Every structure is written in C-alpha cells, then in structure tokens.
Amino acid sequence: MRLSACAAVVLAIGFAAEARAQEAVPQNDLLNATLWMQDSVEYKATVLGLFALARIRLDEGLADPAWTALPEMQGEKFGDRPPAIIVDLDETVLDNNRYQASLVTRRTDFSSKEWTKYVNDKVTDAVIGAVDFAKYADAKGVKVFYVSNRTKEEEPATAENMAALGFPMGGNVDTILARGERPDWKSAKESRMKVVADGYRVLLVMGDNLADFTDKASGTRAERNAVLEADMAHWGKDWIMFPNPEYGSWESSAFGGDYKKSADERRKMKIEALKAWEPKS
Ligand SMILES: [Mg+2]
C-alpha cells in the first residue's frame, strides 16, 4: 500500500513536470532580434567589420578635399571646412539591448515615458567597437556629431552616460543634436544634418535606420527601395548602415507607420508583407 502511494506521488510529479514542459511560451516579435543583437558573435563580428570599414573610409575622406557624404547639402567650397562625421546614437553606437530584453521578459511594448526613465538611469552600453572608432576619428581631428532622436530632455543623461563610456564629447561644441533642441529639429534629421554640413565637411554618415540618412525613409516599401537605388553610390562608401532587426522604419513601413494599430494587427500586416514560397502539392 505504501509503495503504491509512493508510485502515485511520483507519477503525479511526472505529469506536472510534463504539463509544465508542454506549456506554451507566448510568441514575442522581439525575441530573436534581441537575442541576436545582445548575445550573438555574429552581430558583434558584423559591427566590428563595419567600424573597420568606417576607419578606412574616414581616412580616404580626410585625404580627399572633394569628398563629402552630403553633396546636396554642402554647397560651395566645403573643402576648406573642418572635417566631421554624423553618427546616430541608438543601435549605431549605443547599445540598448538591456532595455529591449526587458520588453521581452516583461512581455510589454515600448513606451516613451518608460524609455525616458531608462535613459535617465544612464545604464546604456556602447556598441562593440564604437568608442574606439569615435576616439579614432577624434584623434584625427574629425568632429563627431551625434544626431539622435533622443529628446532634448534626455540629452543631459545621455551626455553623462556617453562620457562615462569614453565617447569624445566635442569640448566646447554641443555635439549631441537632440530632437526638439530647436523648434525645427523634429524627428526627421535632415535639418540637423544641414547645420553640421554648413560648418563642416561631412566625411561619413552612420546609422541603423534609413531615416538616419534621408528624410525620405517613411514612405511605402516601394518608395524606400527607390531611395536605396537612388543613393546606391553612398552605401558602404560615405553612408554606413548598421544592422537593427529589433525596430526601425523598415518595420513600420510594413504597417504604414501606424503604431495605434494593435500588436496583432501590425503582426498580420507584417506577415502579409512577406513574399512567400507556395509549395505546389
Ligand atoms: Mg538608431
């Protein structure tokens, strides 16, 4: 009798464990991208390669007074201006994967209010290789401008965080051009890029989002592909794109940029945006 009671307990424990193992884990659109960016050697090696390319391009640009990443903005006689580069912050030189991971583990969505709290915590990491690259540019007399859609309210904590990470911060020049710092500095970045282009020869633009390079990023997928084609001579030369599978205008273009749509509606539209193979039988 005692033996069979024991067997029943063991069986019950076994069934419970099996039930737990079979418990469905809810899908999360951010999981794979965050795991890849936070944890994979593949991401790190990709980014290190991009910063190595950027050093080569920076040196080529420095040696050639006719070189500019922004020919349409520079106007005349830009060859005499001091050199600069324009660098986006988040997911280009700043690594917010702990924030993204927290969205996954807490099964919640991005909120701008919570994002500001995260920024003010000053726990943002540097993307691997980013500080060394920025220091390399700075040591060659190239001013590093950070054109970011972090807001002007988030700028002080961002600057403190970045200085602690070792980024060159521009001395007497305000090198973080934050969203809202001037009335015409909205999320579109060209008005801020123009300010840099007016005073400097811009050698490189670096970002993880088409919107870091042009204001034409928020169009349809077809329009965005037309931008890619039109700017083909820039890519890998004076415009360097970093991978960001977590978020960006590539994602929002699939649901018309409408974040008021529910997560399910957005997911449905993203699935519909796919070109899929159809098996014949
Ligand atoms: Mg970014």
TrEMBL record:
GO cellular component terms, semicolon-separated: cell outer membrane
UniProt keyword Zinc-finger present: no
Statement: the UniProt record of this protein carries the keyword Cell membrane: no
InterPro entries xref list: Acid_phosphat_B-like, HAD-like_sf, HAD_sf, Lipo_e_P4
Positions of transmembrane segments: none
Top-level lineage group: Bacteria
Signal peptide: 1-21
Record key words, sorted: Lipoprotein, Signal
The protein's name: 5'-nucleotidase, lipoprotein e(P4) family
Lineage start: Bacteria, Pseudomonadati, Pseudomonadota, Alphaproteobacteria, Hyphomicrobiales
